[in-house]
Amino acid sequence: MESRPSAIIYWTLLAYKEWSFYIAASEKGLSYVGSQQKPFEEMSDWISRRFPESKLVQDDEKMVPFVQELIEYLQGVRQAFSIPFDYRGTPFQLAVWKALCEIPYGQTWSYSDIATHIQKPAAVRAVGTAIGANPILITVPCHRVIGKNGTLTGYRGGLEMKTRLLNLESGKSALEL
């Protein structure tokens, strides 16, 4: 019996100033951006569910392009990402994640805005579920989604991280973060 070769998922810990989160990528692109200050297991558990035949390999060198663009974003000098992504989801999730990438830097949309944008205006709750499953925080900017009444709503990275990212994009100083 022939065994299937396992894919390699490369990872590193991005640590920049007060930011610290794990990121992972396949040969195709960035696959995962973790939550602020969460343990390695958050990433490894997610990878084992989404890439079940893969092997996790720490490779700081291979991750440099991804780290570099994320740090440029955290410095406030990058507004869009050019790195490739490799995210896996249902067709509906992929449509929602694509829509998230269309939210302009520094702006916010509501869950119903996203549902309307993907031409599924009645699917607001499903949109929320798909956003919650977004594996690539920051680069697929689910932090730009707020409640219809303008309130901050759930975020896998936590509301503190969401607030800091929105403040970064609005140009507020570090003291306001």
From TrEMBL:
<dbReference type="InterPro" id="IPR001497">
    <property type="entry name" value="MethylDNA_cys_MeTrfase_AS"/>
</dbReference>
<dbReference type="InterPro" id="IPR008332">
    <property type="entry name" value="MethylG_MeTrfase_N"/>
</dbReference>
<dbReference type="Pfam" id="PF02870">
    <property type="entry name" value="Methyltransf_1N"/>
</dbReference>
<feature type="domain" description="Methylated-DNA-[protein]-cysteine S-methyltransferase DNA binding">
    <location>
        <begin position="91"/>
        <end position="170"/>
    </location>
</feature>
<dbReference type="InterPro" id="IPR036631">
    <property type="entry name" value="MGMT_N_sf"/>
</dbReference>
<dbReference type="GO" id="GO:0008168">
    <property type="term" value="F:methyltransferase activity"/>
</dbReference>
<protein>
    <submittedName>
        <fullName>Cysteine methyltransferase</fullName>
    </submittedName>
</protein>
<dbReference type="InterPro" id="IPR036388">
    <property type="entry name" value="WH-like_DNA-bd_sf"/>
</dbReference>
<keyword id="KW-0489">Methyltransferase</keyword>
<keyword id="KW-0227">DNA damage</keyword>
<dbReference type="GO" id="GO:0032259">
    <property type="term" value="P:methylation"/>
</dbReference>
<dbReference type="Pfam" id="PF01035">
    <property type="entry name" value="DNA_binding_1"/>
</dbReference>
<keyword id="KW-0808">Transferase</keyword>
<keyword id="KW-0234">DNA repair</keyword>
<feature type="domain" description="Methylguanine DNA methyltransferase ribonuclease-like">
    <location>
        <begin position="9"/>
        <end position="87"/>
    </location>
</feature>
<dbReference type="InterPro" id="IPR036217">
    <property type="entry name" value="MethylDNA_cys_MeTrfase_DNAb"/>
</dbReference>
<dbReference type="InterPro" id="IPR014048">
    <property type="entry name" value="MethylDNA_cys_MeTrfase_DNA-bd"/>
</dbReference>
